[in-house]
Design a protein that fits this description.
Strands 3, 4, 5, 8, 9, 16 and 17 form a 7-stranded mixed sheet that branches. The protein is α/β, with parallel strands linked by helices and about 350 residues long. The protein has 10 helices and 17 strands. It is globular, with a radius of gyration of 21 Å. Helix 10 links the parallel strand 16 and strand 17.
């Protein structure tokens, strides 16, 4: 089969010098594995980290790709829930499934957890014609969802769902602030919060504010302004008049960090929640602890999610309640171009400005 392979790390982001479209042996499924012909695979920033060999030295030679969708062509003898012809998408969070964390529904906290297509290998990822995964790490795709949309949503939808539903446990009527609403996770954050009957205030750069409204945000705020948080607080004061009379935010969807973090803390109500999954503008953040302990604020970390949460998210995608916005679609032969676009796009993502769903169609 054909696969996108690199055998050494790329210096200075020179991905073209290391990425090769080459023939590798077809995989044979183990007894618990599903073999599927990949129809579409989405790029994730893990793929860039892998080629850089930083912050983790991934196995070489390497096939990247955590988010892949395709058609089942073979199953192992112990596979019970899939058959040839099924349409499937990957669940890239691979865990042991038997430790106390896994068996209590917290496989994202498993000490043996690895990310398929990033930490797996050699030559085990989704950027190939035929991929293989344990049965527990694939999921059927509703008929109404395309392979491209399924691949693009695999990790980002799961991350957003786990943040808001699994960790923050959002409730109807809450005011949710989605930071970086035009990013990959932000796009889903807005839609999930609206699905749950919340009032959504989302932030983005000026040119993206209209997109936030199209996604369902009730209010859109330019986070490039120095006093953007004052505008958010003013909106919450108006909303309080028809709600509980208490201005402020119930849940903040956070993934950008940097200088925004402390401003976000000032916006939270007493007993409110911030859920965070990243720090794209900086890890070292100023924080006034008084906002945390005096107001009893909950700060929740979040990463990945469970297979059940992925199924929930895809159920609502299948019903048309959650949609994917794909930045670009490339052919497999033009995968190098897609990878070269990724770091440039990520420059914008670091400023939480843009959606980033790049898909290669096989």
């Amino acid at each position: 089969m054909k696969a996108l392979v690199y055998e050494k790390y790329a210096e200075n982001n020179d991905f073209e010098s290391v990425l090769q479209l080459k023939e590798v042996p077809d995989p044979t499924p183990k007894s618990n594995e599903v073999l599927f012909r990949v129809k579409a695979a989405a790029l994730n920033y893990d793929d860039i980290w892998g080629m850089r060999g930083k912050p983790l030295a991934v196995p070489l030679p390497h096939i990247s790709g955590t988010d892949a969708a395709g058609e089942v062509i073979a199953v192992g003898e112990d596979v019970k829930n899939f058959k040839v012809g099924d349409r499937v998408v990957s669940h890239g969070n691979m865990s042991c499934r038997v430790c106390s964390r896994c068996t209590s529904g917290r496989e994202y906290d498993c000490k043996k957890r690895i990310i398929w297509g990033f930490q797996t290998g050699p030559l085990w990822g989704g950027y190939c014609e035929i991929a293989h995964l344990p049965e527990i790490n694939v999921m059927k795709i509703p008929d109404s969802i395309s392979y491209e949309d399924a691949a693009a949503a695999s990790m980002t939808l799961l991350t957003s769902w786990h943040m808001l539903v699994g960790r923050a446990k959002i409730k109807p009527g809450q005011i949710v602030l989605v930071m970086g609403g035009s990013s990959g996770v932000g796009i889903f954050g807005i839609q999930i919060a609206k699905l749950y009957g919340c009032t959504v205030i989302a932030t983005a750069s000026p040119e993206k504010l209209g997109q936030l409204k199209e996604l369902g945000a009730d209010y859109a705020v330019d986070h490039r302004k120095e006093d953007w948080h004052k505008e958010v607080y003013k909106i919450s004061k108006e909303l309080a008049k028809t709600k509980d009379g208490i201005p402020g935010i119930d849940v903040i969807f956070e993934h950008i960090g940097g200088s925004h973090f402390n401003k976000e803390l000032t916006l939270l109500k007493y007993g409110a929640t911030m859920v965070t999954t990243g720090a794209t503008t900086g890890y070292d953040v100023p924080a006034d602890l008084r906002h945390i302990f005096f107001k009893g604020i909950n700060i929740l970390g979040s990463t990945q999610g469970t297979r059940a949460e992925l199924e929930e998210g895809f159920y609502w995608m299948g019903k048309g309640k959650i949609k994917v916005i794909i930045d670009s679609i490339f052919t497999f032969e033009n995968a190098v171009e897609a990878h070269n676009k990724m770091p440039v796009s990520y420059t914008h993502l670091r400023a939480h400005e843009t959606s980033l769903h790049l898909v290669c169609r096989l």
